[in-house]
Specification:
six-stranded mixed beta sheet; alpha/beta; about 280 residues; globular; TraB/GumN family protein; single chain; hydrolase; about 50% helix; metal-binding; 14 helices
Length: about 280
């Protein structure tokens, strides 16, 4: 279940910007009264290669705690997530889709997950889409977050979360279930062909450390979940993170790892921190 949280958070990152940022995944935060710098790092939640470069390893060494989007080290996290998997008010996937379309999804999930859609009838449809992410890459699944956690534990430091499972899961109660179901059906009808192509493009952009390019690609996606719900998926969460980030890095130098597309944009974490008076500069 833990990997599922990593997977679905991959989709929760997006959109616009007026001033282009440098191509970098690692950003140094200083100034505004900070005694020591902290670091902001853009992650990708599923990849073929989760290794970290020398600058990132050095930043981890020079900080004293790790903040991810969620506290992935919380032993209660899986049980918490299970509570929020069902749709509200008894809504079911089989009622959102026609019987013919539900069968298409059912056959598709049996083929790719070896499980029937009937087992997940009450789940938020987006969660099923997230479970398919490993099928989109032609390599063993790796997670940058898990690698960050491994190194942090080796340094005997703590892992924390910028938000709670409840905060992240409620996003998918705010996005209409019908839209989520329709996108799942679209994926099933296309047999993941479009999704694989788009994800390969995202991994290439990530490898090039092009956070602006990632936003551009996601903006151009025809997925209505991302295109029509920018505030829920990205902007509101970024804004909510800023007080948590400021508090943490004023207590001790901190390494923050969040989905790379959270970094850029007018309401991206970099711009929001700069608006608060901090110097946020790319580490080359």
């Amino acid at each position: 279940m833990r990997y599922l949280i990593l997977l679905f958070t991959f989709f929760v990152s997006l959109f616009s910007n007026a001033q282009e940022l440098e191509k970098s995944l690692l950003w140094k935060i200083s100034g505004n009264g900070l005694e020591q710098p902290s670091y902001l790092f853009g992650t990708i939640h599923a990849t073929c290669d989760a290794s970290l470069d020398e600058n990132t390893l050095k930043a981890l060494e020079n900080t004293q705690q790790l903040f991810l989007e969620l506290d992935m080290d919380d032993k209660n996290m899986q049980m918490e997530m299970i509570k929020y998997l069902p749709m509200k008010d008894g809504v079911k996937l089989s009622t959102l889709l026609s019987s013919e379309d539900f069968k298409i999804v059912d056959d598709f999930l049996k083929k790719n997950l070896k499980m029937s859609a009937k087992m997940f009838d009450s789940f938020k449809p987006f969660m099923l889409s997230s479970m398919l992410l490993p099928k989109m890459i032609d390599c063993p699944y790796e997670s940058v977050e898990m690698n960050l956690m491994k190194i942090t534990k080796e340094q005997n430091e703590e892992v924390f979360g910028l938000e709670k499972v409840e905060d992240q899961m409620k996003v998918f109660d705010e996005i209409p279930y019908q839209i989520q179901a329709d996108e799942l059906l679209k994926t099933a009808k296309g047999d993941l062909e479009k999704e694989k192509k788009e994800f390969n493009e995202i991994m290439t952009i990530y490898k090039n450390k092009d956070i602006e390019g990632m936003l551009k690609l996601m903006n151009e996606s025809d997925n209505k979940i991302t295109a029509d719900n920018k505030d829920q998926l990205l902007n509101n969460r970024n804004i909510n993170w800023i007080p948590v980030i400021i508090k943490a890095m004023n207590e001790k130098p901190t390494f923050f790892g969040v989905g790379a597309a959270h970094l850029a944009g007018e309401n991206g974490v970099i711009k929001l921190l700069r608006n608060q008076g901090y110097k946020v500069e790319a580490v080359k």
